[in-house]
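Exam revision sheet. Question 4 asks you to relate a sequence to its structure. Input first:
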Amino acid sequence: MSKPLPPNAVRFRSLAENETHVLRKMLYIALFVRPGEPPFPATILDKPELAKYISDWNSRPLDIAVVAERNGTIVGLAWGRTFSTDNPSYGFISEDIPEITVAVLANYRNQGIGWSLLQQLEEAYKQTEATALSLSVDQLSPAKRLYSRFGFSIYEEAATAYTMRKLLPRKT
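Answer key, structure tokens:
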């Protein structure tokens, strides 16, 4: 019998099929606004280059999402999916490498939730044929430090962003 979690503990689980609306909210939170710039309008998520990160969720074999939940409230989400050469994403490396996105509500940052989400998502991808993970991060984003500490390295530089990659250990 397992011990009950403390009331303020974070629980990690897969995104449920009826929770796909959370992807939109978290994609907006994941967008980095450079210092001195105004926040993006919510409609930015309707642009095809962003909508493709969440549209038709669970329609691709490597669509994986992990939820961080505290006291019944979703406080973070990490997800990944693959993209095609014909319709690449910002952090696209190849069709067989999922690009991941991580979002944590502002009041819950710097508490280890992002790190734990990365761990959970990486473990899920280790059970697949994926050999690496990629992501795109603004060069000024504080999240870049988290990704570097977690083992992502700069793969490519494009304008004001980095594409970062982490190789996954081969299954034995």
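Marking note for examiners. The domain at 10-167 is CATH 3.40.630.30 (Aminopeptidase).
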